[in-house]
Specification:
Largest sheet: 4 strands, antiparallel
Shape: globular
Radius of gyration: 15 Å
Number of strands: 12
Bound molecules: calcium ion
Structural class: mainly beta
Number of helices: 0
Helix content: under 10%
Strand content: 35-45%
């Protein structure tokens, strides 16, 4: 997702058609969204990365825990970042999904901004994140 809109909508789709009105989630200036069962309850959760509108300043990243029925929790903040792309994967094979958020800020000539890895736990990703040196990374992908 590349929009700078506030409050993205999530449309729950079953069988190829929407089953109801969109669910509006409160996120300021999201830059990307990634999904996975972050707390291991069997229901997909959403992570929205974001950054400040004008200056790309660090802002809280947000997790919305899904209930499996199309509703989501209030946003749970996940550290501040000048968030760009995000990805979810179990990077250390401990059975808990981890969240990677790259940071990018071309407005402040801050090209060397570390990517962040929030390590997963039974309660979801935790702070503080580990850092991974990147040079103005725009995207992240994970794979085995
Ligand atoms: Ca979950
Ligand atoms: Ca993990």
């Amino acid at each position: 997702m590349r929009t700078r809109a506030r409050s993205p909508w999530v449309v729950i789709v079953e069988g190829g058609w929407s089953t109801g009105p969109p669910v509006e989630l409160a996120v300021d200036f999201p830059t990307d969204v990634c999904a996975g069962d972050l707390d291991g309850d069997g229901h997909e959760d959403l992570v929205f990365s974001a950054r400040g509108e004008e200056d790309h300043a660090p802002v809280p990243q947000s997790i919305f825990y899904g209930d499996g029925g199309g509703d989501f929790s209030d946003p749970v903040p996940l550290g501040d970042a000048s968030g760009g792309d995000c990805a979810v994967s179990d990077l250390d094979a401990d059975g808990h999904l981890d969240v990677v958020i790259v940071q990018h800020d071309q407005t402040q000539e801050r090209w060397e901004i570390d990517a962040l890895v929030f390590w997963g736990s039974a309660n979801g990703p935790q702070e503080p994140p580990s850092t991974m040196t990147t040079h103005g990374a725009h995207f992240v992908a994970v794979g085995d």
